[in-house]
Write a structure and sequence with these properties.
Structural class of chain A: mainly alpha
Shape of chain B: globular
Helix content of chain B: 55-70%
Number of domains of chain B: 1
CATH topology of chain A: Formate dehydrogenase/DMSO reductase fold
Strand order of the largest sheet of chain B: 1-2
CATH architecture of chain A: Up-down Bundle
Oligomer: heterodimer
Radius of gyration of chain A: 20 Å
């Protein structure tokens, strides 16, 4: 049962990284791919109806961790306090920015919100990377699960590589998504940017996987290579699907090598948090399993339906004049 | 300041702020869904315009509610990790359920509603409005179930020093949440009602076009406000009776009732120093025997006062905090079982007072605009707009009373049920440095302040724009009906 929930939480993170990964990427690339206001609006509108639903995957991943592994939730969140504060502020900023950006017709207003979207997306994705690599690589925690040492203990060379890993992935993933969802010049630009950036931007991800799982990194390298090959071949959809497969493989490798730990202690192996010593009671896990068994398929159906409703590519010609 | 105080200020500020957006979102989203239903059923253009106008304001507010809500999900673990470990087996479940059952529905169908005007059949689009507005209510239920468990722990046994969940059903049907839910939802409708009344009055005064929209909105807002006040009174009375049983100290603190009385009188207003648990120098205007009735439905029953409750609490839950370095300066010190009396006493009165003002004002506005009249004085819209603040203040005061009134506990002991399950707030906080909490406290407060200005500015802009500001413009072929 504990293992099931460990897998389920990994799946929730996978959903989050795959879905919000591209909307982070779109935000990060806003000034690069969108040369003028209309083009930037095209980009924002590719994620407009869905970004909020994507973000709920994070909320549920965190909530499920609280319910199923309270010790993990408490230790990780309190130890990474300052990075998480930054993360929350970034999410707050970019969230309201999407909604408020177009509500006042004034270039300075738009510029301020554009900067918020770009900065918020970069910071948030870096923080997500830091959080995930921290839980996989471990923290200096004591027997009680409390952090020993400075508030910046989560920031080390390996976790910084982890932060860059997910930022780099989001960057390429967002460009591929933009190519898939737009038409005309933006699409061409997005494809070019994805192909050009990929070798550099995806390097930290490969490095992180190599640190954690050695040669298993090759699996993800191969999938990413295929994704870029399909993009060069003008098959955006296949490329996007392969990017999804790459993050699935990444999550599987990272969480697979973490198990049965959930947050290793870098001070003493005996203090590491594990699925066994942080899990809720069997009854709570059973209740949550029923909720997840009925809830999650429904979520997949109606979120899938949303993507179907908004499946059409959009371009400059679809953007109405003002608000 | 110590970590505990900083963390409490942070929780208070972020939660009260979040709860400014939440009730407006809950109340308004259901009203907008109802307006859209009226439009779909009758085809009357007036309802379409109402849906569009109030829907726009709803969305501006919704965005803020969503982003400030994310903080809530994280801060239990960040700043209250000892609490999270202690209650995790019980408390995490309703939170996770809220995410799976409510937040996914809310966010997904809201996106469909905003962008789907020209993409979905009319009825499917309407169904999206109902889906997200009902999901906001579902989410309120789960989070109130979690909060109610802290006020009245049920469905658990004590196991190796921690409460272990034995019945999720007991947690979800806790009598505390069954009373708190209607009370909170009615409070949300009171906010939405006053919002409609105030803004509609301003447009009537301005002689804005689409007069029928504003008259309809004012009438709807008033009736919603009046019904909400009735529901608030009934559910509030139920809550009060439960509180006398479950948290006698909180109710005594609400009244600043120092000595046990039989029959006990209800204090309407006090002059003097209510901060002292010995009640010297306090003169109070009272209604005889009313408190006895509120407590037990019996005008002659006894109500326990603070001075008699303190020894009872000391005997049951201890006189001193344990000696533990994590308790900081409270380690080994006597436990103060009396909540901050000015906060509880005045919080309780402000809640009731502002709630009554809000409903009364609505009725007065309806009377002023009877038979298509519109007062011409500036005071008419001023009264309406100022009235919007009343239910907001009532909600905040009510929550501040509820949460401050349960101090020094974070999980209040259940006097009738599970033995040994309680937690002092001082034990709940994370092992953080004060600098960490201070940083996030300052940063979040700063961001929230900026956003408050921005939201106010946008709401004002769209209120002034009236109906023309929210109707879609004629677009070229192929353009989206709505785009960011």
């Amino acid at each position: 049962m504990e293992t099931l929930w460990f897998v389920l939480i990994a799946v929730l993170w996978l959903g989050y990284l795959f879905l919000e990964g591209f909307d982070f990427g779109v935000g990060m690339l806003l000034p690069v791919l969108g040369r003028d206001n209309t083009e930037r609006r095209v980009m924002i509108n590719t994620i407009g109806p869905v970004w909020d639903g994507n973000e709920v995957w994070l909320i549920v991943a965190i909530g499920a961790t609280f319910a199923a592994f309270p010790g993990w939730y408490a230790a990780l969140l309190s130890a990474a306090y300052l990075p998480l504060t930054l993360f929350l502020i970034a999410l707050i900023g970019r969230g309201v920015a999407f909604d408020y950006r177009g509500k006042v017709d004034n270039p300075r207003w738009r510029k301020a919100w554009d900067s918020t979207i770009v900065a918020g997306s970069w910071i948030a994705t870096l923080c997500v990377g830091l959080l995930i690599s921290t839980t996989v690589l471990g923290l200096p925690i004591d027997a009680n699960g409390d952090r020993v040492g400075s508030p910046f203990a989560a920031i080390r060379l390996d976790t910084v590589i982890g932060a860059l890993a997910f930022a780099g992935y989001a960057l390429v993933h967002g460009a591929v998504f933009t190519a898939l969802k737009t038409e005309g010049e933006i699409r061409e630009r997005a494809r070019r940017v994805a192909i050009t950036l990929a070798p550099v931007a995806l390097l930290p991800l490969v490095a992180l996987l190599a640190i954690v799982a050695g040669l298993w990194a090759a699996v993800v390298v191969a999938i990413l290579g295929l994704a870029m090959w399909r993009l060069v071949a003008d098959r955006d959809g296949q490329s996007f699907a392969l990017m999804g497969l790459a993050i699935a493989a990444t999550v599987a490798i990272l969480f697979g090598s973490l198990y049965p730990n959930v947050l290793p202690s870098t001070l003493n192996d005996a203090w590491s948090l594990t699925v066994a010593n942080t899990a809720s009671s069997p009854y709570t896990l059973k209740v949550m399993t029923w909720v997840a068994a009925f809830g999650t398929p429904a979520v997949l159906v109606y979120q899938g339906w949303t993507y179907w409703v908004f499946r059409k590519r959009i371009g400059v010609r679809h953007i109405p004049a003002a608000h | 300041m110590e970590v505990l105080e900083l963390a409490r200020w942070q929780f208070g500020i972020t939660t009260v702020y979040h709860f400014l957006m939440v009730p407006l979102t809950i109340g308004l989203s259901l009203l907008v869904a109802a307006m859209q239903t009226a439009w779909v059923r009758t085809g009357d253009e007036r309802y379409y315009k109402m849906t569009k106008f109030w829907g726009k304001l709803l969305l501006i507010n919704f965005a803020m509610g969503v982003v400030t809500g994310i903080v809530q999900e994280f801060q239990f673990g960040m700043a209250w990790s000892a609490y999270s470990r202690f209650v995790g087996d019980v408390f995490g479940a309703p939170l996770a359920m809220e995410g799976i059952v409510a937040f996914f529905v809310e966010s997904t169908f809201l996106g469909l509603w905003i962008f789907g005007w020209d993409k979905l059949p009319k009825k499917a689009h309407l169904a999206c409005a109902w889906a997200f507005s009902l999901a906001t209510m579902a989410s309120a239920y789960f989070i109130l179930a979690a909060n109610s468990w802290m006020q009245h722990p049920v469905g658990i046994v004590m196991d190796e020093g921690r409460p272990r969940l034995t019945s999720i059903w007991a947690v979800l049907t806790n009598n505390t949440v069954l009373a708190a839910f209607p009370h909170t939802i009615a409070g949300a409708f009171a906010v939405a009602g006053a919002f409609l009344v105030g803004i509609a009055a301003w447009h009537l005064y301005r002689r804005s076009q689409d007069e029928s929209v504003w008259r309809g909105s004012l009438k709807l807002g008033t009736w919603v406000g009046v019904v909400a006040f009735g529901a608030l009174s009934i559910s509030g009375d139920l809550q009060g009776k439960l509180m006398f049983e479950q948290q006698p100290m909180k109710m005594a603190a609400a009244e600043a009732l120092c000595h046990t009385e039989q029959p006990a009188s209800f204090s309407v207003f006090a002059i003097g120093d209510v901060t002292r648990p010995d009640c010297e120098n306090v003169k109070s205007i009272t209604v005889p025997a009313l408190l006895s009735f509120l407590a037990h439905n019996d005008f002659s029953s006894e109500v326990k006062g603070i001075q008699d409750l303190v020894p009872m609490y000391q005997e049951k839950y201890g006189e001193f905090y344990p000696v533990d370095e994590r308790l900081g300066e409270l380690s080994g010190k006597p436990i103060d079982y009396v909540p901050a009396l000015p906060v509880t006493y005045w919080g309780f009165r402000l809640m009731i007072g502002f709630g009554a003002v809000s409903a009364g004002l609505g009725v007065f506005m309806l009377w002023l605009t009877r038979r298509n009249r519109t007062p011409t004085g500036w005071w008419f819209p001023a009264l309406g707009l100022a009235g919007i603040a009343a239910p907001f203040l009532a909600n905040s005061a009510g929550w501040i009373f509820t949460e401050m009134g349960r101090q020094p506990f974070v999980v209040v002991p259940n006097p009738s049920g599970v033995d040994g399950v309680w937690m002092f707030t001082a034990q709940a906080v994370s092992n953080s440095t004060p600098g960490e909490i201070l940083t996030s406290l300052i940063a979040l407060t700063a961001v929230y302040s900026v956003l408050a200005v921005v939201e106010f500015h946008l709401i004002r802009k769209y209120v002034r724009g009236g109906i023309p500001g929210v109707l879609p413009q004629k677009t070229d072929d192929g353009a989206l009906a709505f785009a960011y």
